[in-house]
């Protein structure tokens, strides 16, 4: 398929090539065919984008927020109107089946939400200090950078840029080199929506150079990142070594689902399969470890899980009947396959998938794969595989289940299925996780709830009103008043 756009960088309101004309080739992971040449933003381009954002900041931050909101509403309408096209661009760059595409409507929903949410940005006033009136002001920080991954690109683009922009900041976003096409299309829509030049800049390229330039830039005051723990640590280091910019990190996961024998097993099977199969397992909060209460119920659960997980329809992600696409690229494919090979010698049993291939189109397809009874100490039990691969173990007691669930550096999402409300609440409290689902699992989330990780799964929280805090300074003002 020939992609319908010629991707460009959006810098200071203009769509441009990279300053040194460098591009990188993007391949369709379902067919390995080249789909586009994408501009590789240079150090100079990243600096130019930050300079444009800095220059645009005074006028943008001085606007009435309802005027800023007007641009948001136009962009939201454009995103919805182009949803099918955006779905096709994502399918051909990172392999997401078009029938799983919800990102354009979700992104539009985020821009719509923040177009109405600005009155929630409020300070406080008090008379608690005798002789003074005191108040706090919430003010934008200046230039904000956003660096996003490839698995759900427009969701992250919108959930970072919309709150930053409505609060009066200006933005430089860098898309992922694995899925740059939808962000490049949004760059065109940003112009169509009429955003003033320099307010909303969009770069494509690899972590090096442009991502690193943003991370250590002295004029970037806040940086919101979603991606791997490895990159998150590098960004945190670059922030510390430059201007100590405020960094929000949404990182990886190894999310456990605990399933007790009294649970609604049909529902548990359906939802836990969906969690690890959706987007071919390339989801930070996917339940990649499952612990089932030992006994007959566990045997029935494992058999039903395997049947359902193996019944995917793999193929061309542009085919609306397909619900299982390829991994995002060759690097991801090889990484998942290496973990599968390691799983085979880790001491557990491979019960589903893991051997052949589902490939019908010449792409990077991985079979839904299940390992059972793998020793807790194995690397495949501890590290994020980021593919359609699940480890199912059993437990005898509640304490044992919680201890195993918590025995990882990650803590993004955890879930428990049981009809016993006391047990559910005990476990919800004990799990070291930023999100807990009771009788549900990921991707079930509430848009107005804070999302983020315990431990090495991240730092800070995102979520409708919570995200505004990531992009606002708080200033205390103290006013001396005579005879008060
Ligand atoms: P990644 O860390 O490889 O890349 C993420 C982004 O960082 C890309 O835009 C990349 O170009 C950029 N980058 C790479 N090196 C950089 C550097 N040195 N400096 C600055 N930027 C750099 O991650 P990925 O493979 O794109 O995404 C998968 C990871 O993201 C998984 O670990 C997944 O769990 C995580 N993730 C987390 C969440 C969440 O909300 N917690 C959501 C989705 C994905």
TrEMBL record:
Residue intervals of the Aldehyde dehydrogenase domain: 18-477
EC number(s) reported in the record: 1.2.1.3
InterPro entries assigned to the protein according to its UniProt record, in alphabetical order: Ald_DH/histidinol_DH, Ald_DH_C, Ald_DH_CS_GLU, Ald_DH_N, Aldehyde_DH_dom
Reaction(s) the record says it catalyses: an aldehyde + NAD(+) + H2O = a carboxylate + NADH + 2 H(+)
Pfam families (alphabetical): Aldedh
Enzyme class name: oxidoreductase
Gene3D superfamilies per record: Aldehyde Dehydrogenase, Chain A, domain 1, Aldehyde Dehydrogenase, Chain A, domain 2
Alphabetic keyword roster: Oxidoreductase
Active site (record annotation): 250
Family according to the record: Belongs to the aldehyde dehydrogenase family.
PANTHER family associated with the record: ALDEHYDE DEHYDROGENASE-RELATED (PTHR11699)
Protein name (record): aldehyde dehydrogenase (NAD(+))
């Amino acid at each position: 398929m020939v992609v319908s756009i010629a991707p460009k960088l959006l810098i200071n309101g203009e769509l441009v090539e990279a300053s040194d004309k460098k591009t990188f080739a993007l391949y369709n992971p379902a067919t390995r065919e080249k789909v586009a040449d994408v501009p590789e933003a240079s150090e100079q381009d990243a600096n130019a984008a930050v300079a444009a954002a800095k220059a645009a900041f005074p006028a943008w931050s001085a606007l009435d927020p309802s005027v800023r909101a007007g641009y948001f509403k136009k962009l939201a309408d454009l995103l919805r109107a182009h949803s099918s096209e955006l779905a096709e661009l994502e399918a051909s760059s990172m392999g997401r089946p078009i029938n799983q595409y919800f990102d354009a409507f979700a992104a539009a929903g985020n821009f719509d939400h923040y177009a109405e949410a600005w009155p929630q940005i409020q300070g406080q006033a008090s008379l608690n200090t005798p002789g003074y009136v005191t108040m706090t002001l919430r003010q934008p920080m200046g230039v904000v950078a956003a660096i996003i991954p490839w698995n759900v690109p427009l969701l992250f683009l919108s959930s970072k840029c919309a709150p930053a922009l409505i609060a009066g900041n200006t933005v430089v976003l860098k898309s992922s080199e694995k899925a740059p096409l939808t962000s490049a299309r949004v760059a065109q829509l940003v112009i169509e929506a009429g955003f003033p030049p320099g307010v909303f800049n969009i770069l494509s390229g690899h972590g090096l150079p442009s991502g690193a330039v943003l991370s250590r830039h002295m004029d970037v005051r806040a940086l919101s990142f979603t991606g791997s723990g490895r990159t998150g640590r590098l960004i945190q280091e670059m922030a510390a070594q430059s201007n100590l910019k405020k960094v929000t990190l949404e990182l990886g996961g190894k999310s456990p689902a605990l399933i007790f024998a009294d649970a609604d097993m049909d529902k548990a099977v359906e939802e836990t399969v969906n969690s690890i199969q959706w987007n071919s397992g390339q989801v930070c909060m996917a339940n990649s470890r499952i612990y089932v209460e030992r006994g007959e119920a566990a045997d029935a659960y494992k058999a039903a899980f395997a049947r359902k997980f193996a019944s995917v329809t793999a193929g061309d992600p542009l085919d609306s009947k397909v619900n299982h696409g390829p991994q995002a690229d060759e690097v991801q494919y090889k990484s998942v396959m290496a973990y599968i090979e390691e799983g085979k010698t880790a001491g557990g049993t491979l019960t589903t998938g893991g051997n052949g291939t589902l490939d019908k189109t010449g792409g990077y397809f991985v079979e839904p794969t299940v390992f059972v009874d793998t020793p807790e100490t194995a690397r495949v039990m501890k590290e994020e595989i980021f593919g359609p691969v699940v480890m199912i173990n059993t437990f005898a007691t509640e304490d044992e289940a919680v201890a195993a669930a918590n025995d990882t550096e990650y803590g993004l999402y955890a879930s428990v299925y049981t009809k016993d409300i006391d047990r559910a609440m005990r476990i919800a409290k004990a799990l070291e996780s930023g999100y807990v689902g009771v009788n549900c699992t990921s991707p079930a989330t509430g848009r107005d709830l804070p999302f983020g990780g315990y431990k090495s799964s991240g730092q800070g929280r995102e979520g409708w009103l919570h995200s505004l805090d990531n992009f606002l300074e708080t200033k205390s003002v103290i006013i001396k008043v005579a005879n008060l």
